Amino acid sequence: KALKKLEKPFTLSSSSKYKKFGVLRNEIQHLRIPESTDLHRKTAEFIFTIIDPLMHDFWNDSVLNYLSDEIDYLDKFVFSDLYQLGIECYSIPNSLQETADSAKTYVDMQKSVADFMAKNYDDDLSKIEGRTEEVISQISKHVDITKIEAKKALKARIEYLQNDWPDWLWWIF
Questions:
Q1: What is the Cα Rg of the chain in Å?
Q2: CB 89 within 8 A of CB 53
Q3: In 3-state terms, what secondary structure has residue 65?
Q4: Is pTM beyond 0.70 here?
Q5: What is the mean pLDDT of residues 87-103?
């Protein structure tokens, strides 16, 4: 691709985020990782709020074009992750828009299932033991999904509750 000539000098729209990430990077390099820092979130924010806009402004390109070509990877681990974290992509290539939309639908559905489970069962697995089919029917009706989707979502929620997964990871299974 040919580089486009900038009409005015480039300035970061969020230089404070850039500087804060630089400080975090230096802390990590010198083995002083702050305990309260969510490295996963900070990295995703940096990539999609600093690097992606920069690539778009300089080269009319997106970081998404340089990730795995596997749609399942992009769907489950990139777009779903960004939606769950509340991070918007600066630019989504047209070829990936359908995948991004599908991931958003999936995350919204999983959130609805999680809300339903918390509200109706307090996320207490003992309250659903032996009632799996009944719970699947309730989820299917409440979230307006098929019973097959409800079964998969319930399985994912149970696996999440049985393990000590980070909060942002519950929807991935």
A1: 20
A2: no
A3: helix
A4: no
A5: 85
What is the number of helices (H) and of strands (E) in the chain? 8, 0
Q: How many CA atoms lie within 13 A of 152 on its CB side?
A: 10
Please tell me the total number of residues recorded for the chain in this structure. Answer: 173
Tokens of 77: 């681990």
Of 21, 89, 94, the residue nearest 49 (C-alpha):
89
Q: With helix as H, strand as E and coil as C, how does 99-161 read? A: HHHHHHHHHHHHHHHHHHHHHHHCCCHHHCCCCHHHHHHHHHHHHCCCHHHHHHHHHHHHHHH
Render pLDDT for 125-136 as a digit per residue (tens, 0 to 9): 888 888 999 999
What local confidence, expressed as pLDDT, does residue 167 receive? Answer: 56
Percent composition of the chain: helix, strand, coil (DSSP 3-state, to 5): 70, 0, 30
- Nearest partner of 166 among 33, 43, 47, 38, judged by Cα: 38
